Amino acid sequence: MLATETKTSGTTAHHASPALAEADRLMTVCNSCRYCEGLCAVFPAMETRRSFADGDLNYLANLCHGCGACFYDCQFSPPHAFDVNVPRVLAQVRNESYAHYAWPRALAPLFARNGTAVALVAAGSVAAFLFGFMAFNDPAVMFGRQIGEGAFYRLMPHTTMALLFGAAFLYALIALGLGLLAFWRDIGETRRTLHDAGYNWQATQDALRLRYLDGGGAGCMNRDGDPAKDRRRLYHHLTFYGFMLCFASTSVATLYHYLFGREAPYPWWDLPVVLGTLGGIGIVVGPLGLLRAKAERDPAMRAPEGRGMETAFTLMLLALGVTGLALLVLRATPLMGTLLAVHLGAVFGFFVTMPYGKFVHGLYRYLALVRFARERKALHGPSPSAKRALAKPA
Amino acid sequence: MAAIRSEGSRPEPRSRVDVLVIGGGNAALCAAISARREGASVLVLESADAFWRGGNTRHTRNMRCAHDSATEILTGPYTEEEFFEDLLRVTGGRTDEDLARHMIRESKAMLTWIAEQGVRWQPSLGGTLSLGRTNSFFLGGGRAMLNALYATAGRLGVEVRYEAEVTDLAIEDGHFLAATLRSGERIEAGTLVAAAGGFESNIDWLKRYWGEAADNFLIRGTRNNTGAILRLLLDKGVQKVGDPTQCHAVAIDARAPKYDGGIITRLDCVVFGIVVNKHAERFYDEGEDIWPKRYAIWGRLVAAQPDQIAYVVFDARSLELFMPSLYPPIRAETIPALAEALGLDPEALDRTVAAFNAAVRPGTFDDTILDDCRTEGLTPPKSHWARRIETGPFYAYPVRPGITFTYLGTRVNRDARMIMADGRPSANMFAAGEIMAGNVLGQGYAAGIGMTIGAVFGRIAGREAARHARN
């Protein structure tokens, strides 16, 4: 028994996938080290466990923000024989978990070749709107100059638009909700935690600030172990808040329409346009920055099989932003009809692919943060035996 | 990792620098940064590559510094006097008092100085209960600390060369002239800071003192601490300090790799069971004192057993009372079956466990205090936390001596200047870190003190070397 059996193993014999088995092995290494416990939420959550079943690992993987600090801080990362690569393996597990919890199960394979799937749906959606517009409209309307209140609805009646997008959005909500519910049950959580206002408030703050995308204060490391080169948090904020502003713009416009009977397009200074313009800029600049960060990411930390999904989602957001802004700028020209069709096609494509792409990461992470809020609270007053088990001089 | 590799970038071939630092860990980088901040040109020669740089610092986690009041990261004051008393206790008085007190005094400033070099401290969290007052922890651990030091050194203009193994030192009459690399390149420098670690990964050297037993030692840290620089210095007239058999050694999982297993192969279960040797016999009081005060003696205890192997045996009740470790315990339904699995004589282990169980007196088990669970009429006794090993399944961890670092070193004075064999201080040679730890640590260990020695004497050595070089 001397230096021969250096291959390490996990805590649980059976896992649904090799990535989960590897994650178990890594958490076993990390749990006996714990040097990274100040970096983010994953390691404190890990420390409350002694064994790692698939549900635990799916939770930890979705709690991980992929900041990368632990990879460069780790004395056991490759080329060390222990081969500890937490960012990559948890990214793999995370990607698999999206498919694992997808509703309906029959559509789970969409995650496998997600880049292709999303591209096809988006292209099909845009094409359908273009053909639809042309089929139902006189070329003079489609390619003519439309201005004034109700200009958009001369191309597609508002009721049709509202019904179509309402249905797509509703479907997305149901599919997302059922997937999230499956995740919540599988990690062993309760309705009570889910409904707790305190945990949700904590998780909301953590999510809005991306608290755990900062390496514990030292900064994240996307490449070279240098936090100064990582601007992912900024770009993610631009993307997220840009998206929320676009959503707010649409919501305000809907209220205008139904409450005040005011029809789009609105003047440039009006609230829906201001929100949409700022949001549009966010979802153009943010995704461009994120794409660049992805391209620069240390290959060692990448989960290559997730690349298509990430790129597809980011490009989709970029497409929403670019087509929306183009529509705003050129809405008084004969190009409006075509641009409206393209923009609506992109939005529709985005809605229907929401439950089957990278969009879900934010929701799963939010739930993981809700659970972590509960676990962190429990940690604040550990029992004496738990404290003992944690104590370890170096 | 591209930029880590290029930090400090490829230096221009240069014939002479002010300060040459040999080594690449905490002590070396503190010396390099400190010398550079004094205005000297500095070249660091690290024998490892960019990933493995930093020697044992990669495996560290904290540093013990004196402080007069609680801080954001420390739960209470730790005075110079208390630090010194702790040092006296763990070394049994085998320390250079003047040097030790000087180090402790200087350690107070390290809390700020280290942070100024870009290293981040972490508030004491759950994992550090017993050290939350005395020791400051690096956010992300020792490698994170090293990364910060290397980044700062690079920004300041310190040149770092990796895979730069020094094979010879030109020293004349206590005066350093030049170092020769394996490539044959000769580098002249105004001063030398030797911060290249101890000799613990040189098994042949260990064998001089430990005999064949050293073959069974596991080295917890870097494989690069071969003691090559220490050897050269001692051979060229530097006075040695310390007992060559003294080192920091703990009992670690016998399944750990020969080198670089680090913290994760450590086991904290000794107090919960009994420890037997390959003849299935106990050999030391497992419950002598609380574990943080005893963990560092078990390496030497196991080293003294036949074949340098021992087994910690405990039952199901204790399984979750200690920190999880890397390898799972070996498990069996009965004691004889456990013995089989371990390759021990089943009857012998059964006898040992039965004798132990019979000697256990009733008591109230509490591993947070020195409880009243003990044995009576047993040799050796188990003074605390003695509970019968009777609830299956039964578990065992095989353990071997895990050497952290050795204490034989170069003698230095308060300026970290090496003292020559004739008692005179060297004109331009300084030492910091493990290579001179024996000045402070005659024996024993207190958590985090190795990093204190490295950082304090590294900073002093760099400063003094720079001043000398510029005069």
TrEMBL record, chain A:
NCBIfam families: CitB
TM regions (residue ranges): 115-136, 162-184, 238-259, 271-291, 312-330, 336-357
Keyword terms of this UniProt record: Membrane, Transmembrane, Transmembrane helix
InterPro entries given in the database record: Citrate_utilization_prot_B, NarG-like_sf
The organism of origin for this protein: Methylobacterium oryzihabitans
The keyword Transmembrane appears for this protein: yes
Keyword Transmembrane belongs to the record: yes
Protein name in UniProt: Tricarballylate utilization 4Fe-4S protein TcuB
